[in-house]
Amino acid sequence: MRQDRLRVALYALLVGAVLLGLWQALVTGAPKGKGLPGPVAVARTAAEMLSHPFYDNGPNDKGIGLQLLASLGRLAIGYLTASVVAIVAGVVLGLSPFLYRAVNPYIQVLKPISPLAWMPLFLYTIKDSSTAAVLVIFMSSLWPTLANTAFGVATIKRDYLNVAAILQLSWPRRLLQVVLPAAAPAIVAGLRISIGSAWVAIVAAEMLIGGTGVGYFVWNEWNNLALTSVIFAILAIGLIGVLLDAGLGRLSRRLAWSE
Amino acid sequence: MAHLEIDHVSKSFPGPDGRGEVCVFRDVAFSIARGEFVTMIGHSGCGKSTLLNIIAGLERASAGGIVLEGREIRGAGMDRMVVFQNFSLMPWMTVAENIRLAVRAAHPAWSRRQVADDVARYVAMVGLTGAESKRPAALSGGMRQRVGLARAFSTQPKVLLLDEPFAQIDALTRGVIQDELVRMWEASRNTVFMVTHDVDEAILLSDRIALMTRGPEARLAEIIEVKIPRPRTRAELIDDPEYLRLRTHVLKFLVDDGRPADGDELALSTGRQPVLARGSDITGGRPL
């Protein structure tokens, strides 16, 4: 076990070193001021940005920490609202087979729409770009959770519901002690897909709406031709994505059960 | 007086390819006295588990009804607890939580303390003290069914419905758990309806045994009384002439294609009954 882990860690370090080496090889030799910045330049920018992540020098000059927090804030509002709506709707659909079959075609049509495609409609109707961005997150994290919850609830083993029926559990108790725990693995799988797609969507949404957020930051730094900042932000986005996924991974392990 | 009455119950399902109906069993009628242990035995497909589910209120009868203490039952209820063949424990709950779910449902007014004490009492009763915080996946089949029994008894139901409760338990453990069932039943004296296809188990546990003919269109052929005094032990039973007589009788019935006896119950032993050519009914094939 331990030896295996060591081996994996060693390979991971090797892959990292190879990637960094390739990157460095690609950028060396380019004349100064042209071509991509190398890892060393990006690391220098990263160190500088991480030393004051929360400075605020006006609308176009904020620290990376503030930008990430702005994005995470939007993510939290949009994602949590969508998750509550999706789980409630999913449970209702999962418990009523006819409704499920009737509504499913609509879900299937709505699901593949890029959440960004809704942006113009949100901007037109709400006239507030920040709320529109939150709604984009809402749309991006709604469908996977909804579809998974409905499926998870619809496929609960008849036996568990029979026990609940014999024990004459009240509806709230039946929901909290039988339906939700039984469907929990499927629901969390949906939540996990949702948070991934929400985090992908927020960067694009913020590029469009401007103002704050890590997506806006990337676009702004591109306009400043500060490519080291762009690359650093890309890495930061990836890292946060990993953390978000790991958090839900822990939740999924806690709620997992086997027969 | 009849405690539980199965009042001319029939059950049909929609036929394959949606056309017509397949009658599983027809016009089953018998009653069980308070505190009596009645077992139904029959081949797979005779609808005995379906009948048990109808008594539990989990399925509906196509005709007839179930009367408990003079009132027709409607749907599932806490007065009739089921012990399932596949245990049907909530896999996300621990042993204690599974039993607690039932105890709380049976005694909504109890305090947390009272519930916990009762859960501990039933856990101890089935010898699972120490395993309270294990989940079903970590338990053997025998241990899981002990939880199933504890859960059922903990609600103190009027009627206990046992749906082939020992079928998925290895033979060595089965005897031990059957003894535990008897012990718990003798303390509580619930009315019991059990379904099985194990003849020895039926004789060991029951006051009366109901024999079903083969399905489809199964019927209740006869009900035989087990006049062996309790407490019964497996060891004593083996040499009991009454046990041997009953065992032969039931086995013969099952082998003889479940044909009902004409007249008194011993008629069966007088000779082999003609076997009904039912094959064409089952396959749907028609002779040309």
CATH topology heading of the domain at 2-79 and 190-280 in chain B: Rossmann fold
Q: Write down the CATH class of chain A.
A: Mainly Alpha
Total number of beta strands of chain B: 10
Helices of chain A, by number, come to: 10
Please list the strands of the largest sheet of chain B in the order they lie side by side.
Answer: 6-7-8-3-9-10
Q: H/E order of the elements of chain A?
A: HHHHHHHHHH
Reported by name, the CATH topology of chain A is MetI-like fold
Shape of chain A: globular
CATH homologous superfamily of chain A - what is it? MetI-like
User: What is the approximate shape of chain B?
Assistant: globular
Rg of chain B is: 20 Å
- SSE string of chain B: EEEHEEEHHHEHEHEEHHH
Describe it for me?
Chain A is mostly helical and 259 residues long. Chain A has a single domain (40-255), classed as MetI-like fold (Orthogonal Bundle). Chain A is 80% helix and 0% strand. Chain A is built from ten helices and no strands. In chain A, helix 3 runs antiparallel to helix 4, helix 3 packs antiparallel against helix 8 (171-209) and helix 6 (129-154) runs antiparallel to helix 8 (171-209). Chain B is α/β, with parallel strands linked by helices. Chain B has a six-stranded mixed β-sheet with strand order 6-7-8-3-9-10, with helices on both faces. A four-stranded antiparallel β-sheet of chain B has the order 2-1-4-5, covered by helices on one side. In chain B, strand 7, helix 5 (171-188) and strand 8 (191-196) form a beta-alpha-beta unit. The longest helix of chain B has 18 residues, at 171-188. Chain B is globular and about 50 Å long. The N and C termini of chain B lie far apart (52 Å). The chains are: A mainly alpha (259), B alpha/beta (288).
